[in-house]
């Protein structure tokens, strides 16, 4: 794993992304050369068109990230990967056309662009055919030794078996568990733990002890550490591997002393606010016709107002009202009691189902972003009735209100719509990860990945 701006990126993803950038740059250059040869144009040195090549490669690479071209499915399914490549290149070409309209000097001509696009598709698919096995092989995965062989260690073993795992379990060391995992080696059978870890060619030791109180093998851990092998606590390991804060293993002291939740965010917060104001103004301006059109359609299909206001809990538990296009019948909550939305909820209208899937119902919330009550990126604000129940049921739920709520967020792009306490638990784990590791880079990644959720709606209700 490589950490970029407090966010972890798997080695396989980083290698594939670098290969893709190289392929896209070459495709851009070849597209220019081929077209120049066709029309008999004299070719100048490559430095003269370097800006166009870089803009071409960057726009298509950003499109690859936005459509999920580096997700686990894309890394392990050739058909899935090719579909994502085709969509990404198509989106990238649209972006190139916009750039050509705004700044003609930074984009290819249409003829060059077509050739470069074809070459890009061929090159990206070829990279996945040639390096697919290498990317998914154990050569790019870390070798991990588990110190502990109980239920916690079993979770790490199961995670290693999922598609896209960035590590393999090289060894299991039982630390006195009543029923250790099969193939675990008892600690008493290992004369020198540090040498045992080195012999397994491990790069990391994960503490997965069932009971840490008065049980930490400090001498063993110190000797392992001095060999150059990383020693990691299970909560930190799970955070890095899953992109969420694991509520089953985490404790208050880990949250207090771990890296994250930094208060020194003055510059990044100012940048975030400037982006929110600029983007919300632009979006309200350009989306006004779309909002007006669907407001009319909502009004025509069912009785009641086209918009509705709903009380939500915001930053520091302060209540505020959000504005959305109405997607349910007017009598959806006749008793006045908050009700979770369900799959194929009968209260949702036909127009409502469509605007929920493509997130058009969320557009009026840009007004809340402009006022400063929300941000574009952050945990989704919940209704006060739900918050009261969730704070009683879920540890650390109140901590998600330490950051401004958002229209989209880390939980929204990683977990489908939730309509239960258990769903809320999983989404809270992602929200806590965002609150702990917030950076402009993570915000940008979430905004890009939101496009994937819009194009392939999963669980929108």
Task: Give the topology, please.
Elements: E1 2-4, E2 7-9, H1 11-39, H2 50-66, H3 72-76, H4 78-102, H5 110-136, E3 142-147, H6 151-160, E4 167-174, E5 185-186, H7 193-199, E6 204-207, H8 218-226, E7 230-233, H9 234-242, H10 252-257, H11 266-301, E8 307-313, E9 319-325, H12 350-357, H13 366-371, E10 375-377, H14 384-393, E11 406-408, H15 410-414, H16 421-437, H17 440-455
Parallel strand pairs: 3-4, 3-6, 4-5, 6-7, 10-11
Antiparallel strand pairs: 1-2, 8-9
How many domains?
3
Spans with pLDDT under 50 lasting ≥5 residues? Answer: none
Structural class designation: alpha/beta
**N-to-C span:** 34 Å
Main sheet record: 5 strands, parallel
> What best-fitting shape do the alpha-carbon axes yield?
globular
What do you see in this structure?
This protein has 461 residues and is an alpha/beta fold. It has three domains: 2-137, no CATH class; 141-242, Nitrogenase molybdenum iron protein domain (Rossmann fold, 3-Layer(aba) Sandwich); 266-455, no CATH class. Helix content is 52%, strand content 11%. It is built from 17 helices and eleven strands. The chain has helices at residues 11-39, 50-66, 72-76, 78-102, 110-136, 151-160, 193-199, 218-226, 234-242, 252-257, 266-301, 350-357, 366-371, 384-393, 410-414, 421-437, 440-455, and strands at 2-4, 7-9, 142-147, 167-174, 185-186, 204-207, 230-233, 307-313, 319-325, 375-377, 406-408. The strands form four sheets. The chain has a five-stranded parallel β-sheet, with helices on both faces. The protein has a two-stranded antiparallel sheet with strand order 1-2. A two-stranded antiparallel ribbon has the order 8-9. Helix 14 links the parallel strand 10 and strand 11 (406-408). Helix 7 crosses helix 8 (218-226). It is globular. The protein starts with a strand and ends in a 6-residue tail after the last helix.
């Amino acid at each position: 794993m490589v950490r970029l701006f407090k966010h972890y990126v798997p080695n396989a993803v980083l290698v594939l992304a670098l290969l893709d950038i190289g392929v896209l740059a070459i495709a851009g250059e070849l597209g220019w050369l081929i077209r120049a040869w066709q029309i008999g144009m004299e070719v100048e040195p490559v430095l003269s068109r370097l800006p166009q090549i870089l803009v071409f490669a960057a726009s298509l690479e950003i499109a690859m990230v936005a459509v999920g071209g580096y997700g686990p499915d894309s890394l392990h399914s050739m058909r899935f990967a090719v579909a994502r490549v085709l969509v990404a290149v198509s989106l990238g070409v649209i972006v190139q056309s916009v750039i050509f309209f705004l700044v003609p000097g930074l984009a290819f001509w249409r003829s060059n662009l077509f050739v470069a696009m074809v070459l890009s598709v061929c090159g990206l698919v070829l990279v996945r055919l040639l390096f697919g096995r290498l990317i998914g092989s154990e050569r790019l995965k870390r070798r991990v030794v588990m110190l502990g062989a109980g239920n916690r260690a079993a979770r790490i073993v199961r995670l290693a078996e999922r598609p896209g795992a960035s590590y393999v379990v090289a060894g299991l060391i039982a630390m006195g568990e009543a029923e250790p995992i099969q193939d675990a080696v008892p600690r008493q059978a290992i004369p020198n733990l540090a040498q045992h870890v080195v012999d397994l060619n491990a790069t990391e030791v994960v503490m997965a002890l069932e009971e840490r109180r008065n049980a930490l093998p400090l001498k063993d851990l110190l000797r392992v550490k001095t060999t150059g092998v990383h020693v990691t606590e299970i909560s930190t390991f799970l955070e890095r591997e899953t992109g969420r804060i694991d509520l089953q293993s985490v404790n208050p002291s880990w949250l207090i002393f771990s890296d994250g939740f930094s208060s020194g965010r003055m510059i990044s917060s100012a940048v975030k606010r400037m982006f929110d104001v600029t983007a919300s103004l632009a979006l309200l301006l350009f989306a006004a016709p779309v909002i007006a059109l669907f407001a009319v359609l909502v009004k025509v299909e069912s009785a009641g107002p086209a918009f509705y206001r709903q009380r939500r809990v915001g930053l520091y538990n302060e209540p505020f009202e959000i504005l959305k296009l109405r997607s349910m019948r007017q009598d959806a909550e006749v008793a006045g009691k908050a009700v979770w939305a369900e799959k194929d909820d009968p209260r949702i209208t036909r127009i409502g189902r469509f605007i929920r899937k493509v997130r058009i119902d969320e557009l009026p919330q840009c007004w809340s972003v402009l006022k400063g009550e929300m941000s574009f990126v952050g945990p989704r604000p919940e209704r006060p009735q739900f918050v009261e129940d969730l704070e009683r049921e879920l540890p650390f739920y109140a901590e998600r209100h330490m950051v401004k709520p958002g229209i989209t967020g880390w939980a929204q792009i990683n977990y489908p719509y939730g309509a239960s306490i258990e769903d809320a638990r999983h989404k809270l784990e992602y929200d806590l990860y965002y609150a702990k590791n917030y950076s402009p880079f993570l915000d940008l990644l979430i905004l890009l990945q939101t496009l994937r959720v819009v194009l392939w709606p999963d669980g929108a209700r």
